[in-house]
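User: Okay, second chain of the day. Same drill as before: sequence in, structure tokens out.
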Amino acid sequence: MNASIERNRSAYVTLADAFSKIGIDQQAAFLNWGYAPVAGMPDEALDPASDTGSNAPFERLVSELIGPLRFDGQRFADIGCGRGGALEFIARHHRPLSFTGIDLSTDNITAARKLLGERRVRLQIADACNLPLGDKSQDVIFNLESSGAYPDMGAFLGHVYRTLAPGGVFLHGDLWPRQMVAPFRQIMEDMGFVCESFRDVTIQVCHARERMPPSLVDRLALQPDMGELRDYFAAPGSAMWNCLDQGEIVYLLTRWRKTGNGTSKPDLTRLNTRSRDIEACLVSGRDLTERRAKWFPFGAPRRTAQVNILAFPHAVAGASAFKGWRPAFPQNWQFSPVQLPGRESRIGEPPFTSLADAVEDILPLVVPYLDRPLVLAGWSLGSKLAFEFAHRIEKERHGVPQLVVTGACPGPHEKLPDIASFFGGNDIETRLRILGGTPQSVLNNMEMLGTLKSAMEGDIAMAAGYCSEAVIGAPILAISTSEDELVSQEAVESWRTRTSAGFDHVRLEGGHFLARDDGEKVAVTVRDAIERRLDITATAIGRGYNAA
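Assistant: Same drill. Structure tokens below.
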């Protein structure tokens, strides 16, 4: 027997055992990843899939694949039927002439028989790459989230074509490496299929994955031999999730009709690297997962967010300086404080001494998400990082941020060659005390003070070495504080000359480190400004042009 087939069967045995051990064997009717509608993106489901209940997103994915079709009086086969969820859903909404479910796994077929009960469905254990169905014997072949495990995708498609009657429909939904999407479509057309629908629903599927209870995956992951479960279920933050979110792997829902008018005999073996290509994406995805967690310890930018917010902390501070901000933002906004080297969880890493170098390292982790609205926020030294980040994005033609927020910081054209004079002393402890934000336990620990010294020196070098006369196309919100002894209101207002778009200045009650000491107050101000910008952009798009 083919080794990959045996491996797939073994995986289903392990999964069925895990379902049983955590007590959800009867409820786990679906193995697909689900679908959740996203505002502004088209849907095609017509069947009344419920919006509530644990199976709602999985039923919705089935319904989206079916689209406007009806199967009454037709011969229907589900290849890779899993635990029978799709068959049961279709049986509730359609009246096929015949109903067949085929799956490689004995456990899946057993579960499907229990779920379908007395319904007249033929269930069979078989290999999708060697379908035991007669020529032209089916009007509809349904194949959802099963083919990624097939060792010979070309052979499977050959059987689909052989098995379908003329005019028959092939419904296919699954993962594809981005570089194979175009070849897949071309091969299907060359075989003699007409494409009736070809949808990239990656964002909708990721949105459904975000709604999946994390506790379920955590419970399953504790079971033996379930170490790769997070990738299997595309749990948010997993390697698979990151590959989907970055677009390296796409989730397609496609509908094809057999015409019998193939223009050529395509080389179906071209599709047989699919599983290998997906695994290669996952290898890089695992590395990306580690890097994203390092840079964004409280959540990284994502494509499903209404808006992504990057926040750069003040000198020597880490991402936790913004811990008071998160509660002020809506759940569908992604707030991502940046963890720079040399602080908190990265305290052992050498810090940056060049602001441009910092932007260079962070930018690749953000570029894949620049098709979503982006806000850049900084506090004190972090303001200059936010500004340079915006300038770099615009210079490289990635787009224009929705908003740049600068707090308690002079404009980027005001160079500070002797920033050390702000601190009133040369020793690290004195500087940290004046800066604030360093716990007393750290100030009392000479060893820990030593580790922070290089971070302090790096930040001083970044501030002293940066001066920019650039003008960005993003609007700027500059925040000053009433009791700031380091930066004057006039210095904060100097940001006005650094934008060709709108400029606002807000003065809040508090000291230089207000973003840390009363984060929610600052975050509410930022939230209100973002909401205004989103409204302006939505109005502009509605009138047929793009707002800066």
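The chain has 19 helices and 13 strands.

User: Thanks, on to the next one.
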